[in-house]
């Protein structure tokens, strides 16, 4: 362990001890004091914890590729070619440009640039349905009550919403986008609707792509448009609730109006959406499909200063027809993700932009056939998953952790969703040990274990 690692370890121990002391004092003090006393102790403990040693990198932005449904780790980044036939599946691994690292044969473009990203194979949790797994990986907080597979749940703010709360994008752009829809747990919870994602549902692969409601209405020049804005302010006499904890919906609506006006009238904001300005060679490199062009739009958004963009990439819940589905899906997915990483690298943006691809969990090691289906696949599996992590100062060309010979569970460097989310926050320039005070006057830590994955930190 070098000098900087020792300093960081000491800082983490001091933070944990400070929090433990706070809990002991706070719980005991509730008998003779108020809950606000406990809040004060939380603040004191955080203030007493020393900051991590070493130079601080500038905050990175994040493009999060959410593989909704739960991608199979055994057919993407953690193949088991020596496992028995009922486990190993139909695909074979291929070498990458980094000796010793192999990935799926149907991802040849990513295989060529493995030196630019890391693979984490040992994040695991105990949430086996979509709603709960989605919430855990999107927020770093396990759900508090059982959550059904189809549920849209938000017991805790998502990484995107926290980023919107902590960082402001320039030129009137929202700080948090989600394309083409919001993920199940991508919302703000107690932070309020102002920190929900700006959703761009329109398809940038369309011939006349135009973000709905982000241009001055036809027949209304900009001068008249702004005059109408002033008129609206003049006639709007609705009383505002002064207590921000009350969550006045009228104030939230005002924020949306102001944001909408800024988007419509700011040239820099408008340019971010003008994907048609990209050269045909660039658009072709990403792939002329909805997913590829959304990744290109995400690059344009972070280039314009947006700190967090989520691509909600649905359809990874392969209980049946697994290999036939992936033979169609993986090649264009591979092309687009590799193009995004390479494009950011060539533009000098990869060092300050994370590209992360993951879903809510992995898939069962043993192949199964669901009742009523003619072909086989894999079921939900929280005990093992793989995450692609590039950019933001992440050392590429490495595999972190590993799973056993059948892919059941980590047998090397087991990591939690909290560790993953703490890594993202740290690279975003947000203290993962930070806490908010909820409208109910309760402290809520962003992540219960704010320890990032050290191998990804550089």
Give keywords.
alpha/beta, 16 strands, two-stranded antiparallel sheet, 14% strand, globular, 458 residues, 14 helices, eight-stranded mixed β-sheet, Alkaline Phosphatase, subunit A, 36% helix
What would you say this structure looks like, in words?
With 458 residues, the chain is of the alpha/beta class. It has three domains: 3-48; 61-207 and 273-457, Alkaline Phosphatase, subunit A; 212-271, no CATH class. 36% of the residues lie in helices and 14% in strands. The protein has helices at residues 3-29, 35-48, 85-88, 108-111, 130-139, 159-166, 222-235, 249-265, 267-272, 280-286, 290-303, 322-346, 417-428, 454-457, and strands spanning 61-67, 93-95, 102-104, 117-123, 176-179, 198-199, 308-313, 353-358, 362-363, 380-381, 385-390, 398-400, 402-403, 410-412, 435-437, 443-445. The strands form five sheets. The chain has an eight-stranded mixed β-sheet, with helices on both faces. Strand 2 and strand 3 form a beta hairpin. Helix 5 (130-139) packs parallel to helix 13 (417-428). It is globular.
The radius of gyration over CA amounts to 23 Å
Looking at the structure, the CATH topology of the largest domain is Alkaline Phosphatase, subunit A
* Average of pLDDT: 84
Coarse shape: globular
Secondary structure topology:
Blueprint: H1 3-29, H2 35-48, E1 61-67, H3 85-88, E2 93-95, E3 102-104, H4 108-111, E4 117-123, H5 130-139, H6 159-166, E5 176-179, E6 198-199, H7 222-235, H8 249-265, H9 267-272, H10 280-286, H11 290-303, E7 308-313, H12 322-346, E8 353-358, E9 362-363, E10 380-381, E11 385-390, E12 398-400, E13 402-403, E14 410-412, H13 417-428, E15 435-437, E16 443-445, H14 454-457
Parallel strand pairs: 1-7, 1-8, 4-12, 5-6, 5-7
Antiparallel strand pairs: 2-3, 4-11, 8-11, 9-10, 13-14, 15-16
Helix pairs in contact: 1-2, 5-13, 11-12
């Amino acid at each position: 362990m070098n000098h900087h690692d020792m300093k960081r370890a000491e800082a983490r121990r001091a933070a944990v001890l400070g929090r433990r002391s706070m809990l002991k004092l706070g719980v005991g003090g509730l008998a003779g004091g108020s809950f606000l006393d406990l809040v004060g102790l939380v603040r004191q403990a955080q203030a007493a914890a020393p900051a991590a040693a070493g130079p601080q990198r500038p905050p990175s932005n994040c493009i999060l590729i959410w593989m909704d449904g739960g991608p199979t780790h055994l057919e993407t980044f953690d193949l088991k070619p020596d496992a028995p036939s009922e486990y190993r599946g139909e695909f074979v691994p291929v070498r990458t440009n980094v000796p010793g690292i192999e990935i799926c044969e149907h991802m040849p473009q990513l295989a060529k640039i493995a030196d630019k990203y890391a693979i984490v194979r040992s994040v695991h949790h105990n949430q086996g349905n979509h709603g709960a797994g989605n919430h855990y990986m999107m927020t770093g907080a396990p759900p508090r009550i059982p959550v059904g597979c189809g549920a849209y749940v938000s017991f805790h703010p998502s990484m995107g919403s926290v980023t919107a709360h902590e960082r402001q994008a320039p030129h009137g752009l929202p700080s948090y986008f989600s394309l083409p829809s919001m993920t199940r747990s991508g919302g703000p919870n107690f932070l309020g609707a102002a920190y929900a994602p700006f959703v761009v549902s329109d398809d940038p692969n369309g011939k006349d792509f135009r973000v709905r409601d982000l241009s001055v209405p036809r027949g209304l020049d900009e001068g008249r448009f702004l005059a109408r804005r002033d008129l609206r302010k003049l006639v709007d006499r609705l009383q505002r609730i002064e207590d921000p904890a009350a969550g006045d919906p009228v104030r939230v609506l005002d924020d949306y109006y102001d944001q909408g006006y800024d988007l419509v009238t700011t040239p820099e904001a408008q340019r971010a959406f003008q994907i048609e300005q990209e050269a045909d060679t660039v658009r072709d490199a990403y792939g002329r499909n909805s997913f590829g062009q959304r990744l290109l739009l995400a690059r344009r958004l972070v280039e314009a200063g947006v700190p967090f963009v989520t691509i909600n990439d649905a359809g990874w819940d392969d209980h049946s027809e697994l290999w036939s589905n992936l033979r169609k899906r993986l090649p264009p997915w591979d092309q687009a993700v590799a193009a995004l990483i390479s494009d950011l690298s060539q533009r000098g943006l990869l060092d300050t932009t994370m590209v992360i691809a993951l879903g809510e969990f992995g898939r069962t090691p043993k192949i199964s056939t669901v009742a009523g289906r003619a072909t086989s696949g894999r079921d939900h599996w929280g005990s093992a998953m793989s995450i692609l992590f590039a950019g933001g100062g992440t050392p590429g060309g490495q595999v972190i952790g590993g799973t056993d010979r059948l892919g059941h569970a980590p047998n090397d460097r087991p990591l939690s969703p909290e560790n993953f989310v703490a890594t993202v926050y740290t690279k975003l320039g947000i203290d993962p040990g930070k806490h908010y005070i909820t409208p109910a006057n309760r402290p809520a830590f962003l992540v219960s274990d704010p320890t990032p994955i050290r191998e990804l930190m550089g």
